[in-house]
């Protein structure tokens, strides 16, 4: 009943995955509307979104949703908002995020005691089963440290922005309801005065 008349080719499906036909604005508007309509306190929703957004600044792709859920539970915030917040990290933003993580991590590492090469300090052998672990340590450790720093720095930013957005939208919605209620009462009063 809901199938397409003409099925899409694999090329069309791949293109739609990376560049939606209706554009990214529609996807972003949907995410914002979904976030605004969640039930719960403004703090809970904003904190949940901030948890998801902050976790997306870590190099642990594939675990972002699990980490966001765990952090949301820890902060007693909205889990669904945390899942929505992980959309900040997506295939379009990951390359920029990873470069930022690595640069921040390499800048912070000497401050916390990593002066020499990481592989020497961690005492990692050159290879394990044909896989060079020192290369992994050279990139993943700085990105993890950079991710921790950036996550701690961005959580308050995402929390503040989403909290202001949610409370503003809820106040606007409440004013509209009050105006409709006031108009309805005025109409009822006029109708009752005319019948008298």
Task: Give the SSE order as H and E letters.
Answer: HHHHHHHH
In this structure, how is the largest beta sheet organized? none
* Whole-angstrom Rg: 25 Å
The helix count comes to 8
Q: In one word, what is the shape?
A: flat
Distance between the termini: 57 Å
* Uncertain regions spanning at least 5 consecutive residues: none
Number of β-strand runs: 0
Roughly what is the average pLDDT, rounded to an integer? 82
Any overview of this molecule?
With 196 residues, the protein is mainly alpha-helical. It has 8 helices and no strands.
Give the helices and strands, then pairings:
Blueprint: H1 10-18, H2 24-36, H3 42-55, H4 64-74, H5 79-85, H6 94-108, H7 118-122, H8 133-195
Helix pairs in contact: 3-4, 3-5, 3-8, 4-5, 6-8
Main traits of this protein?
196 residues; single chain
Task: Summarize the model shown.
With 196 residues, the chain is mainly alpha-helical.
């Amino acid at each position: 009943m809901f199938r397409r008349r003409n099925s899409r080719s694999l090329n069309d499906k791949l293109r739609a995955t990376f560049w939606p036909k209706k554009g990214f604005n529609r996807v972003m508007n949907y995410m914002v509307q979904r976030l605004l309509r969640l039930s719960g306190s403004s703090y809970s929703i904003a904190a949940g979104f901030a948890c998801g957004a902050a976790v997306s600044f870590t190099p642990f792709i594939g675990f972002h949703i699990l980490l966001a859920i765990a952090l949301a539970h820890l902060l007693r915030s909205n889990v669904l908002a945390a899942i929505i917040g992980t959309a900040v990290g997506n295939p379009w933003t990951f390359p920029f995020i990873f470069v930022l993580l690595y640069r921040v991590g390499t800048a912070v590492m000497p401050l916390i005691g990593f002066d020499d090469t990481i592989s020497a300090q961690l005492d990692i052998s050159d290879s394990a089963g044909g896989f060079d672990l020192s290369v992994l340590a050279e990139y993943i450790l700085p990105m993890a440290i950079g991710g921790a720093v950036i996550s701690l720095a961005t959580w308050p930013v995402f929390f503040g922005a989403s909290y202001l957005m949610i409370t503003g939208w809820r106040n606007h919605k409440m004013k509209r309801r009050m105006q409709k209620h006031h108009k309805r009462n005025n109409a009822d009063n006029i109708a009752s005065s005319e019948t008298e």
